[in-house]
C-alpha cells in the first residue's frame, strides 16, 4: 500500500517524526512525504519524486518537494509557511481520492499559524478534510492494539455535552463507527459498547436522565436495525481487560471519557483515525510539540503506528468486494 504523509507544521516535530518513521518502515511500506525537503532533519536521505511511490524505498525518503519559502525555525511557527501546509493537505487528499495513493497520514498542524498565514477557516484538520471530501459528518476514533474509542462529542465544554449529545448525533456516530470497523478493520459483525453520560450510567434516572431520555431509545432503535450495540454502560467498568474483550469499539459521551483510557493504556502508540471519509486518513495522536522541536528527541512511536494503521486500513478496503 502507498501512503502519503502531509508535512504538517514545519516548526514542530512533524518533519522529525516522519523521517524517523520512514527509517523504521523503509523496507515495509511505500511512503511519500509532501513538503519542503529543507524542513526535514539534517542528514535525512531524500529522493525527489513526481508521484507517490508504489514500493518501499529503503535508501532515501521519497519526497513530493514543494517550496514553502523561508526556512523553518524549530519551535517558532511562521505564518508564511501556512499556504504550503494547507496545499500539502489538499494535495494529499487529491492523491488518495484519485487512486494515486492508498492512504493519507497527516502530521500535526498549528491552527494559529494557518489562520494568520492562510485565513484557515476550519476548527482543525478533521473538519478541513471533511470539507475537501464533501462529507457532512465524520467521526474521530483513537485506536491502538488494545482499544478503539470514539467520542460522540469532542472539543466542547463539559457543560455543553448533555445538550449536544442528541439521539441523532449518537446514532450517526455509532453507524459510522460500525461501518468503518467492517470496511477498514475487517470486523464482520462489529460489537459496539456505549458509555453512559452520567456516573453509573444514570442509575435508572437517579443520577441524571440523559440515559433514559436520549441514549436508551437511540440504542434500542439501532439494535432494531441489526447493529450489535450494548449500553449505555457505566464508563468506570468498561475499560479493564476483561471488559475490552467484549467489544470492538467503545463509543463515549465526551472527549475525556474516551481519551483517558486509551492514553492510559498506550500513551505513545495511539493513532487518530477519521471515520466516514471516502479515503483512509490517520494521524499521530500528538501535537506539534514546539518545546522539543529540532532537538532530535521526538518519539516517532505514534507516527509509526499511524502509518502502519493507514496501510492496513487501505489493504482492508482493497480486499472488500466493490
From TrEMBL:
Location within or outside the cell: Cytoplasm
Gene3D superfamilies, per the entry: Isopropylmalate Dehydrogenase (3.40.718.10)
Protein's recorded name: 4-hydroxythreonine-4-phosphate dehydrogenase
Keyword set includes Iron-sulfur: no
Keyword annotations from UniProtKB, A to Z: Cobalt, Cytoplasm, Magnesium, Metal-binding, NAD, NADP, Oxidoreductase, Pyridoxine biosynthesis, Zinc
Binding site for a divalent metal cation: 155, 200, 255
Assembly description: Homodimer.
Catalytic activity from the UniProt record: 4-(phosphooxy)-L-threonine + NAD(+) = 3-amino-2-oxopropyl phosphate + CO2 + NADH
Cofactor remark: Binds 1 divalent metal cation per subunit. Can use ions such as Zn(2+), Mg(2+) or Co(2+).
Keyword Signal: no
Binding site for substrate: 125-126, 263, 272, 281
Protein family: Belongs to the PdxA family.
Cofactor: Zn(2+); Mg(2+); Co(2+)
Cited InterPro entries: PdxA (IPR037510), PdxA_fam (IPR005255)
GO MF: 4-hydroxythreonine-4-phosphate dehydrogenase activity; cobalt ion binding; magnesium ion binding; NAD binding; zinc ion binding
Pathway per the UniProt entry: Cofactor biosynthesis; pyridoxine 5'-phosphate biosynthesis; pyridoxine 5'-phosphate from D-erythrose 4-phosphate: step 4/5
Species for this entry: Wenxinia marina DSM 24838
